[in-house]
Design a protein that fits this description.
single chain; 506 residues; mainly alpha; 18 helices
Length: 506
Amino acid sequence: MSDKKRIAKNTFALYVRMIFVMAITLFSSRIVLEKLGVTEFGVYSSVGGVVAMLSFLNATLSTGTSRFITFELGREDSRRLRETFSTAFYTHLILALIVVLALVAGGTYFVSHKLVIPESLQTPALWTFYISVFTAFISFTQVPYTAMIIANEKMSIYAYIGIVEACGRLGVAYAISLAPIEKLIWYAALTAGLQLTVALSYRFYCLHRYEESRFALIFKKEICKKLLRFSGWNLLANVSQMLSTQGLIVLINMFFAPALAAAQAIGNQISSAMTQFSSNFMLAINPQIIKLYSKGEYEASRKLNLQTTVLVWDLMLLIGLPLIVCMNPLIHLWLVDVPDYAVIFARYIVASQIINTFSMTFYVPMIASGQLRDNSLAALLVTAVEFVVLYGLLKAGFDVMWVQYMTILVAVIFGFGVKPVILCRKIGYKVREMCRCYLQCLKSAILPIATCLVTVYIFDINESISYSIIAMIVIMMAVAVSSFINLTQSERQYIVSIVKNRLKAQ
């Protein structure tokens, strides 16, 4: 199968997965919020945030493991691939045990004495914390198997298991009503059971499909050192990501009621569902970018990455702008009990994710080349300053909206400053290429943003569902037209021919 056909097939499989997962996840969140209530949902999000503050190590090692496995696949060295997988598995297992010990030792005190939790929920919150720690352990040891599937570009299996997992989450949401114990503990336990089932499914497939993933007593210090060195720099970038998501939920909960933490968590869920579109698209392309780089085809790798950036930007506009404009009626349609600030938080978070398109796509060539140091140091510095400034502002009595203002500012700094400078200085990207990429993105953004402003001015989109639907359609059409302009002549002719053939067939 050619690379283009493989990318197209994998993208289709991932989009089918994404549509099912996003729809079920949003509906499941509505059920969970309704069954648990705003306060308990906020407590669960805050306690889970404490676990996530250390489990970001999982994301760090996941990136490194995926990179090295994909790199060896590109080189077509089966012996080296087996050594890499086995070493990665034992590395994850050791670090998982260290993280569990650290969480149990320090997290218990933090949950009991630092988080604002109602007295009646103190014990359930602690049990939820311990169950979440177990879930984090499962996630840690699962990473090499997921990385093997993605590196081999078997996205159909990834899609099938993802759909089953989403259905399981819906079942868990409805099962809250059947809780024989405290609802918070019951929900955490069912979530952990589901996570364990999914992990075993991935492992069963890998063990029967890929000989390299079978159990072997192989641990190469040289591979481990490379993996840890790579992951060490990536760790700093993931610390900043953790502070920008779960860390902000915890920070809000330290100064405000759990309802505001729930509002931030809801905004993160909406943003996460939206970014599934771009993440799935990139998941299908990233292995190709890394494999091209591993073969020394640097120009082809660079060209594919810049093309991907423009496409992902258009995709984020297509989804994000209608969400921002119509957030109020949509979120009230989605949730039964809407926490205060949920709508405005969600709008700002979605806007920041649109801007983060550049940070997300420009990070891939850094992973392929292993040039992570400068980006990681900049990420840690900027985000640490953001967190410290926000802590000071909130402690001084400033409004909670400053959390969202700073999030937008940091997204701009990374997307238009830090990442492009590093690509040009360290990885051989040209300033002219970067400017052309930004210009293409600007061309596709002007008309949709103008349409948004006009639509907001004419219609009362905050109250009317019918006008909101009109606004969404108009904005999506504007983005589609603008994106079509960005295509090359051959790409436009190809799309037009597909449309004509479809019309003739009917």
